[in-house]
Design brief:
Blueprint: E1 15-18, E2 24-26, H1 27-37, E3 52-54, H2 72-138, H3 164-179, H4 193-197, E4 199-205, E5 216-221, E6 228-233, E7 238-242, E8 247-252, E9 259-265, E10 273-278, E11 283-288, E12 295-301, E13 308-313, E14 319-324, E15 329-333, E16 339-342, E17 352-355, E18 361-365, E19 371-375, E20 381-385, E21 399-400, E22 406-412, E23 415-420, E24 425-431, E25 438-443, E26 449-454, E27 457-462, E28 468-472, E29 480-483, E30 489-494, E31 497-503
């Protein structure tokens, strides 16, 4: 049952009933009427506020609908009003969203422009520093010290001559080694071609370096401790391993990209150095500490602006040569790790590097198939070797023979040329098959054998006769290899494994 106010005719929100007439009123309306008239609006009898009795109603009950919401047209009008309000609010939000997008776009554009300006200023600063170093070297004055966090970078010998003491060391080494060149013979008991033909797999060291990213990229074997070897990997780590104990002796970190080259510097009376080059444009050196028995970081060389594509220890054992994709090569003193020479920029990047066994020549490969041979003492170009009629290819590896007369390097993607440096011309080109891709070439210490590694394994040829003596294909692709010091073993890397081949036991 519903009550209706006797004055308004609407359901009351606060109903009261008159004790005298029994009619129901809305409290606020009847109180206003009593104040003005003092009588009951229906009967006219005298009525006071004390005569009103409240009617208790459930407080949770929803208030009655207003008259304008009690019909379908009124409801439709209400819904239309709500829709219009919603659309207006949506339009305002869209305008605010577009405004914020414009502000964000402007902020990003401003940041990008600022970064471009900073990059251009850094490039101009580096160019100015390089020009200053070159001028200082030419005028034989000391360039001002450079700020920043550079460790071993461009020094005063940029595109200039070698210091007198370094030049003297190179000349003395050259005279000593070249004088004995014709007398160089393989040591007693050195393997013959017939011995090499009988080489078979002897030992495999598996699971070196991290499985992600997997792969060994470079290898070096110690001459002072033939059971120890170095590996560089795609995992940015240089690893020193002892074959006799099957233990990792050192895990040397510091590179931010894959390690491309590793080498030992072993010199009597000096600590053993471990050297490495990387795709992160730097070379690093670690020295053996006699007290702790560990290898400690010795130097970080940041000379080059491109990937280090070649690393070799000079026959003096006091110098190291680096080749780089920035179109320059450099020499560094291994006693203080200062740069003593950096070549002028070439027309092409350098993709490989090797040093003549007498120490006076350095050869670098290029992506165009040309090998450039420089005189280390002056930095002048001594020879440019280009195969005739060859399609463009990258000289990614090269090796001088120990007697210094020959240089082996790819003359196509699937063949290797042996250059006679006395002519100079190609003495022999070894075709390896269209599917073969050359990764590494190397002569042994007797200059009697030439090894060629690639995607189909490792092959060994006899020098002069060019007979293929043996091939090793069981491990698949061979990324790098070295001949053992006495020639009785050949070490190679396949994936994460180091394989050793030699005479059957």
């Amino acid at each position: 049952m519903s009550f209706f106010c006797s004055i308004s005719g609407e359901p009351p929100q606060d109903p009261v009933v008159s004790s005298k007439s029994g009619h129901v009123y809305e409290r606020r309306l009847i109180l206003k009427y009593i104040t003005e008239n003092g009588t009951d609006p229906i009967t006219g009898d005298k009525l006071e506020e004390s005569d009103l009795i409240s009617v208790k109603a459930n407080p949770k009950t929803a208030p009655p609908r207003p008259p304008n919401a009690t019909s379908i047209p009124a409801l439709l009008q209400t819904l239309q009003n709500e829709w219009d309000a919603t659309m207006l609010e949506t339009f305002a939000l869209r305008q605010q969203y577009n405004s914020l997008r414009q502000e964000l776009s402007y902020a990003l554009y401003a940041q990008d422009a600022a970064q471009r300006v900073v990059a251009r200023l850094i490039k101009e600063r580096d160019a100015a520093r390089e020009a200053l170093s070159s001028v200082a070297a030419t005028m034989n004055v000391e360039a001002p010290a450079q700020g920043g966090d550079v460790e071993m970078t461009e020094a005063a010998q940029d595109a200039g001559g070698l210091p007198a003491d370094v030049l003297k060391q190179i000349d003395e080494t050259h005279q000593k080694l070249s004088a004995a060149r014709k007398k160089r013979k393989a040591p007693d008991g050195y393997p013959t071609a017939a011995d090499v033909k009988g080489y078979t797999p002897k030992h495999t060291i598996p699971s070196l370096h991290s499985p992600s990213p997997a792969g060994i990229t470079s290898l070096a074997v110690s001459t002072a401790n033939p059971s120890q070897f170095l590996t560089g990997g795609n995992d940015k780590v240089v690893q020193l391993y002892d074959r006799s104990t099957d233990k990792v002796l050192a895990q040397l970190k510091g590179h931010s990209k894959k390690v491309t080259h590793v080498a030992f510097r072993e010199r009597e009376g000096d600590p053993t150095l471990i050297l490495s080059g990387s795709a992160d444009k730097i070379a690093k050196a670690w020295a053996h500490d006699e007290a702790s028995g560990e290898y400690i970081p010795k130097a970080t060389i940041r000379t080059h602006k491109g990937e280090v594509t070649g690393l070799a220890v000079h026959p003096t054992s006091t110098l190291m040569a680096l080749g780089s994709a920035d179109r320059t090569w450099s020499l560094h003193d291994l006693t203080n790790f200062n740069q003593v020479f950096r070549s002028p920029e070439s027309e092409e990047p350098f993709t490989s590097l090797g040093i003549h066994p007498d120490g006076t020549l350095v050869a670098v490969g290029t992506p165009g198939g040309t090998i450039q041979v420089f005189d280390i003492r002056s930095g002048a170009l001594a020879a440019s070797l280009t195969p005739e009629g060859a399609a463009p290819f990258t000289v990614n590896t090269l090796s001088f023979s120990e007697n210094g007369y020959h240089l082996a390097a790819p003359d196509s993607l699937s063949s290797v040329a042996v250059w006679d440096l006395r002519k100079p011309k190609i003495a022999k080109s070894l075709a390896l098959g269209d599917a073969f891709k050359v990764h590494k070439v190397a002569y042994d210490v007797s200059a009697g054998f030439l090894g060629i590694a690639g995607n189909e394994g490792l092959r060994v040829f006899a020098h002069k006769s060019w007979e293929e003596l043996v091939r090793f294909e069981e491990g698949g692709e061979v990324a790098d290899f070295v001949f053992g010091a006495d020639g009785k073993e050949i070490w190679g890397v396949t994936g994460r494994e180091v394989r050793i081949w030699g005479a059957a036991s």
